[in-house]
Specification:
The complex is a heterodimer of chains A (558) and B (200). The longest helix of chain A has 36 residues, at 65-100. Chain A starts with 25 loop residues before the first helix and ends with a helix. Chain A has helices spanning 26-55, 65-100, 108-127, 158-186, 199-230, 244-278, 285-299, 314-326, 328-342, 351-374, 376-382, 386-416, 422-440, 443-449, 463-493, 544-556. Chain A has 16 helices and no strands. Chain A is 64% helix and 0% strand. Chain A is globular, with a radius of gyration of 23 Å. With 558 residues, chain A is mainly alpha-helical. Chain B has 200 residues and is mostly helical. Chain B has a single domain (17-54, 65-197), classed as Cytochrome c oxidase, subunit III, four-helix bundle (Four Helix Bundle (Hemerythrin (Met), subunit A)), CATH 1.20.120.80. Chain B contains five helices and no strands. Chain B has helices at 17-52, 67-91, 95-121, 130-160, 172-197. The longest helix of chain B has 36 residues, at 17-52. Classes of the chains: A mainly alpha (558), B mainly alpha (200). Chain A binds chain B through residues 106-107, 110, 174, 177-179, 181-182, 185-187, 212-217, 219-221, 223-224, 227, 231-235, 240-243, 246, 250, 253, and chain B through 2, 4, 22-24, 26-27, 30-31, 33-42, 45, 48-49, 52-56, 127-128, 130-135, 138.
Chain lengths: 558, 200
């Protein structure tokens, strides 16, 4: 694969079976990650359907209460550790090497090992449904003392398997993070200084740095929890002098930054897509890039806001309330930069753009409720109610998942060589946007009225909003059908994609669709300007005209 | 953290090979930074539990005996020095002296583990003796695992030194192992302060 311009036969030769084996090509691993993540998305989504089915009536009538506890625990765990993180790692694998002009990741074998850990711990987690006592039932955060009860005394209890799975997930994520950070720091194309890097790479670097700093704390906390559960230690057992709140510190020291690990790549996707579909340069590129790292720093010092009512001293509450509110500043910088980008742009309302616009609306709403939740008096009122559930579903589903869909529609032609169907894509967008808002908006009044989370039955006065939320959830369940139809059919027989169907600027769009195994190979172009030069005639790389001409010729002859 | 080992001028770097090796070192340093956070979590957990404890020591235990651990500490800290000497000889391409000092470092690490095992076997409390026992065994055990890993890595590097021509032009594995060993050493010094020097 060292030919100057890879021949089109190269895309026909690799067999589809390579997706099922140990492959070290980042583009194969990226697709493996994304496809596997969507399998778990369906599993986690199915659990959500049962949960909302239970909540459509006030009585606890669909499932047993203990089963219900297991359902929401596994829903949260699967969606975070088996859907969002893997799907983002998949995008990182596809986008980082192609965007910076690297042939592959820095450590291809480590990359493959990190991926193959996902099905292993995924199976462990799913297997916990079949052990005596059922799966973990203490919520996705697994607070002691509930999580260190082991009434049956089995070594492989649901909670034990949960902890092992989370620890393995941590190992996989650390492997991934070391790989992504090294790749971004060391393998950029000639001429691509940090301030010529696409914002997606900035946000990936920021998010993966957070993984490296935060994740070991959770792993440490989880090791102690596992020892308390199985080996009789007393780190979190008050009767042995331990402190259950200590676990909350360890857990949220990682799991708050984890929110930024999820949302920062979404910010990157916003920053990549708004310029393309507004035909304007990204407004305030330098500030948007640097804001990611300000979010990293602030994101590491806000974790206590997750447990204000857990016997936290007053000074700590005030300090963390203040820090949390500060995060609105760099985030606001980004939101205004995106608004500045689309302001008076030539908007093209393609499927990816619609998902971005919808995601931005949802994100701003989530940001407002986030500031409300940061305020100690409000938080103490709505803590552990549906207000919190509504808030974080707006962040995760409303913003991050919608961005992930936007990214999939946008980069699908690049990595499969086929165009997705616009009509199905727009149906998918409409169902998702309406469904998400119908599902998660009613949770806010419910929370303010005082409906606690994690209950399978509730007072009849909460019924109205719950019925609405359940209908929205079922709509979201339906919304995945046009997406799957679209992806499967267009991957199989969609129209051929050119190397740059969206007329976008970026190194990845100077590669054939799909790119050859080693991307640019030995002919990495030299970057000579900042990204997002829309509306200016300044080329991104040296000899850009020749590269594009060769790509067009190659497309004409296939 | 991001400093790049620049190959000295005149040194021929095999195509791609030398470049890739320096990625390995970058990746390893990033990993070590991340690994240090797990110790930070354990240290801060230990400090918080100890500071908030009403009775830190379990009944019948009046503190830890520190003479043997002190000898252990001296051995471990000195092993970092012997390792530096070994690396010095490697740079001068005196392979046998490198191997000798490298083996000495391994022996000192093994002695540390032996001392740790002797200490553990003589203790009157266990993992389940409240937070005192839990944190003591967790911290020393987790650190001990790292010492054992370090010795294994050194064994691997020693083995690789017998592959002809393997170490000409620098060996990143030796550098990474040495970084790891110094890391384990520094962690132990903090651990020794927290467990044995800090008196109530």
């Amino acid at each position: 694969m060292t030919s100057t311009i890879p021949l089109s036969e190269s895309e026909a030769s690799p067999s589809w079976t390579r997706y099922f084996g140990f492959n070290t090509d980042a583009k194969v691993i990226g697709i493996q990650y994304i496809v596997l993540a969507f399998f778990f998305f369906l599993v986690g989504g199915f659990l959500a359907m049962i949960i909302r089915g239970e909540l459509i009536t006030p009585a606890s009538d669909l499932v047993d209460r203990t089963v219900y506890n297991g359902l929401y625990t596994m829903h949260g765990t699967i969606m975070l550790f088996l859907f969002i993180f893997p799907v983002l790692n998949g995008l990182n694998n596809l986008l980082i090497p192609t965007m910076i002009g690297a042939p592959d990741m820095a450590f291809p074998r480590l990359n493959a090992v990190a991926f193959w850990l996902v099905p292993i711990f995924g199976s462990l987690l799913i297997a916990s449904f079949f052990v005596p006592g059922g799966p973990a039932y203490s919520g996705w955060w697994s607070y002691p003392p509930v999580s260190i009860q082991n009434p049956l005394g089995n070594l492989f209890s649901g909670q034990g398997l949960w902890l092992v799975a989370v620890a393995l997930s941590g190992v996989s994520s650390i492997m991934g993070a070391v790989n992504f950070v090294t790749t971004i720091l060391r393998m950029r194309a000639p001429g691509m200084g940090f301030f010529r890097m696409p914002v997606y790479c900035w946000t990936a670097l920021a998010a993966q740095s957070l993984q490296l700093i935060g994740l070991p704390a959770l792993t440490g906390g989880a090791i102690m929890l596992l020892m308390d559960l199985n080996f009789g230690t007393s780190f979190y057992r008050p009767e042995g002098g331990g402190d259950p709140v200590l676990y909350q510190h360890f857990f949220w020291f990682y799991s708050h930054p984890a929110v930024y690990v999820i949302i920062l790549p979404a910010f990157g996707i916003f920053s990549e897509l708004f310029p393309v579909y507004s035909r304007k340069p990204l407004f305030g590129y330098v500030y948007v890039s640097l804001a990611s790292f300000i979010i990293v720093i602030l994101g590491l010092i806000v974790w206590v806001h997750h447990f204000f009512p857990s016997g936290v001293p007053e000074w700590m509450r005030n300090l963390f309330m203040f820090n949390t509110m500060l995060i609105a500043v760099p985030t606001g910088v980004k939101v205004f930069a995106w608004l500045g980008t689309i302001w008076r742009g030539k908007l093209q309302l393609t499927t990816p753009m619609l998902f971005c616009l919808g995601g931005l609306i949802n994100f701003v709403f989530a940001g407002i409720t986030g500031i409300m939740l940061a305020t100690v008096p409000i938080d103490i009122h709505v803590n552990n109610t549906y207000f919190v559930v509504g808030h974080f579903h707006y962040v995760i589903y409303g913003a991050a998942v919608m961005c992930i869909f936007a990214a999939i529609y946008h980069w699908f032609p690049k990595f499969t060589g086929r165009m997705p169907y616009e009509g199905l894509g727009k149906v998918h967008f409409l169902l998702t946007f309406v469904g998400a808002n119908l599902n998660f908006l009613p949770m806010h009044p419910l929370g303010l009225m005082g409906m606690p989370r994690r209950v399978s039955s509730y007072d009849p006065e909460f019924a109205f909003w719950n019925v609405l939320a359940s209908l929205g959830a079922f709509l979201l369940g339906v919304s995945i059908i046009p997406f799957l139809l679209n992806i499967i059919s267009s991957w199989a027989r969609g129209p051929r994609a050119s190397h740059n169907p969206w007329n976008a600027i970026g190194l990845e769009w100077l590669l054939p669709s799909p790119p050859p195994e080693d991307n640019f190979g030995e002919h990495v172009p030299t970057v000579i300007s900042r990204p997002y030069g829309y509306g200016s005639d300044e080329p991104l790389v040296e000899h850009q005209a020749e590269i594009e001409k060769a790509l067009i010729l190659q497309e004409a002859t296939r | 953290m991001t400093s790049t080992p620049i190959p000295p001028p005149g040194q021929v770097v095999a195509h791609g090979e030398g470049q890739h090796a320096s990625h390995n070192l970058t990746g390893f340093i990033i990993f070590l930074c991340s690994e240090s956070v797990i110790f930070l979590a354990f240290f801060s957990g230990y400090a918080i539990l100890r500071l908030s404890a009403l009775n830190w020591l379990p009944a019948g235990v009046d503190g830890l005996e520190w003479h043997m651990p002190l000898i252990n500490t001296v051995v471990l800290v000195s092993s970092s020095l012997t390792m530096v000497v070994a690396e010095h000889f490697k740079a001068k391409e005196k392979v046998w002296l490198f191997r000798a000092f490298w083996l000495l470092t391994m022996a000192m690490g093994a002695y540390f583990l032996y001392g740790q095992a002797v200490e553990w076997s003589g203790l009157k409390f266990s993992l389940t003796s409240g937070t005192f026992g839990s944190t003591f065994y967790l911290l020393t055990g987790f650190h001990g695992l790292h010492v054992a890993t370090g010795i294994l890595l050194m064994g691997l590097m020693l083995f690789k030194s017998f592959i002809p021509g393997n170490y000409s032009g620098g060996e990143e594995g030796v550098k990474a192992t040495s970084l790891f060993w110094h890391f384990v050493d520094v962690i132990w010094i903090v651990l020794f302060m927290l467990l044995y020097v800090w008196r109530a």
